[in-house]
Amino acid sequence: MVQLMGDHPVYLDKFVKTHHFMMRGDGPLPLHWRNYIATMAAARHQCGYLVSFQEMEFQDNCTDDEWLKDMAQAPTKLKNLSEINKILAHQPWTLSPAHIEVLLKPGENSWSMSELVHAIVILTHFHALAGFALGCGLNPEVDTTLGHTWEEPSMPEWSVSDAETISPCGSATSYASTVVRVEANAVAAAATTAAASILNGSPMTNGLATSTESTSETPPSNGYPPAAAFASGGVAFGSYPTGGEGASFGAAMQDLRLCSESPTPNQDEREKKLLREMFERMSIVRSGSDSSLTIEESQELFESESLMSCELEPPPMRTGRVQCPCPDWIARFVDDPEFMHEDFALRGEFSGITTFRYFDYSWEGKGFSLVNRLYSDVGPLLDEKFSCVSSLTYNTFGDESNVDTTPVRRAIWSYIHCIKGIFHDDYGYSEVNRLLPRTFKCYIKNVTCFPERVSFMEFFNWLRGFRHSEQVHINILLMEARFQAELLYALRALNRYITLSASSGYGPKQYSNSGWG
Question: Which of 97, 258, 260, 280 has the maximum number of C-beta atoms within 10 A of its C-beta?
Fold first, then answer.
């Protein structure tokens, strides 16, 4: 992950400082609690890369690993976070002061406000980080617990179509649904330069493994898959090519080979044409054509864009593979796995949930001060990170240089907030349709709302005209925009709870969603 972000050192510095502070710096929560909360958050999106890493961190910070066997073994206080964990991950606009009250009400398992804010920051951070990891094709690496290993297949010869349930842990039903992606994923070898060198002798070029030779499909004597499995130029940093859980080994290998194929002239031309159109539209948008819109007109465009985003949800079998349940080794940390993303625009007029107006509760105006008051010193770190990503640019756009990419970067940020139900009064939402093609929007929504469905093929083939570092840059934007959106919903609910607590006649019945949007 650090290697991916390494193309953007200024941002990486802010990210590492913030991540280190919330996970290892001063704060009200014990270190192993932070790791467990992070595991719960990453598990909501079935991000094995982060789940396995945080399990390792937990074991380093706590000698009792009973909690890792099943969430039922964890303290009740931690288990009580499950409700806001799933809400923030999938439908943050439904979070209300009632959810906050359950956690803060006096009792043996009550949270303090500072503890809860610390937990919320970790949850929202890891929800967004899971999207970045899966959006870039990251999966557990060779040197991590539950990472990639290899066992000889039972069949006499190597086959890309027969192996369905190779399992390094002995379970051909539960673990196979994840590890089988595989070890096939020995593509994960490309996670580090050393691993790539050990497995297929390939150099690393601009973050991608390149293969200089091909071999037969007979398993080599060292027990690793053949070099052909690493598909020239097709794999980056512990990536996996499959979409839904339970994809077959043969399908994984097929995806790898597709990754290695050079785009056809027609594909190349389409991508170049698409980028040229986006580039030309940026010039039009920079002219400020939407500057005269009233707030009412802007909100109409917002609602229209929000409704259109509902059409982008991928069907359950969009890649031809069945979406299987969450694998057992991740499901241990998931409560109510059926609770998933539902579009904000389809919430229904009688839900009582109104549009979140950024002007009324912005990060700069209210969010920063509340989070910094209850969790000291994290506010400036988050603020620096948000400021960094909003201004991060190299003035390049595909093959073009000296380009002001502000319109596209702002359109991406505003579109993600739109999907999450957050309206910016000062933004003309017609710019989203002008600047972001449908394929671009589809990728944005998948990474932001359904990262567990994103395949490596989508990342690799998505707008090939962009440089690899630009693709990562866009994924960073997606991660931070989602992080800020979730955090604002949580802080607004907490702020509302504090206000109601201080008012007279306070009672649980006043905790409806109505009227506090």
Answer: 97
